[in-house]
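Notes, p. 3: input format for complexes.
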Amino acid sequence: MGQERGDGQRAVLIARPVRPVVNGVSLDAETRCGHYHGPLDIIAIKMRCCHAYYACRECHDELAGHAAKVWPVAEWDQAAILCGACGAELSVQDYLGCASRCPSCAARFNPGCANHHHLYFEPI
Ligand SMILES: [Zn+2]
Ligand SMILES: [Zn+2]
Ligand SMILES: [Zn+2]
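Output follows (124 residues plus zinc ion):
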């Protein structure tokens, strides 16, 4: 009732009781995977090609069975990042502007992920 749902832009920062399904290899409860499992590796990324959440691009490429697509700049307002600590979804824009810290729960994200942005987001 008082809760915004659907396409509301701000809804991306609201932690939901039910999290989207995350796919990956050897996942833990905070979306770490067999490839990236450091303390800060707690985000999952929705891939542009299949709109499914994966713990990382390597998980996608091992499991999805199709070529990955990156998010074009024009779609960076779409919710595509999941905080594994609190379950909040961030848009690509919010994620790139969050200084490696969840805007919802303040959990730290791995700043080293910036080296891999081209695997998920169109380079600018
Ligand atoms: Zn895909
Ligand atoms: Zn992985
Ligand atoms: Zn969070």
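The two ends are 39 Å apart (CA to CA).
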